[in-house]
Amino acid sequence: MEKIVTDSNFAEILNTEMPVMVDFWATWCGPCKAIAPVVEEIAAEFEGRAVIAKCNVDECDDIPMTYGIRSIPTLLFFKKGELVDRHVGVISKADLAAKLEKLF
Predict the structure, then answer these.
(1) pTM of the predicted model, to two decimals?
(2) How many CB atoms lie under 10 A from the CB of residue 12?
(3) Could you tell me the fold of the domain covering 3-101?
(4) Which of 28, 48, 52, 79 would be a feasible disulfide site paired with 43, CB 3.0-4.6 Å?
(5) pLDDT tens digits, residue range 59-97?
(6) DSSP assignments along 55-98, one per residue
């Protein structure tokens, strides 16, 4: 299950030994809606091995600005709290899983 990111809980979400993927999205974004089921499936498959989180850019101000999010969907990948990869746009489930597997 995906965690919901807020400006106040982001540091806590990153504070884990597990890899973290954050999906930056908005309700009005067509590509975000297209990738949402893929992110949900990945969250279920990687439960207990990785943290999958979603950040609504219309509800969070600080995090998107900090990471230079200019297009959505944007996926950020963290390992031990450090940003190690990013993907902008729609991505296949297989490619997304491969990106996460590289973080182990």
Answers:
(1) 0.95
(2) 11
(3) Glutaredoxin (3.40.30)
(4) 52
(5) 998 999 999 999 999 999 999 999 999 999 999 999 999
(6) EETTT-SHHHHHTT--SSSEEEEEETTEEEEEEES---HHHHHH
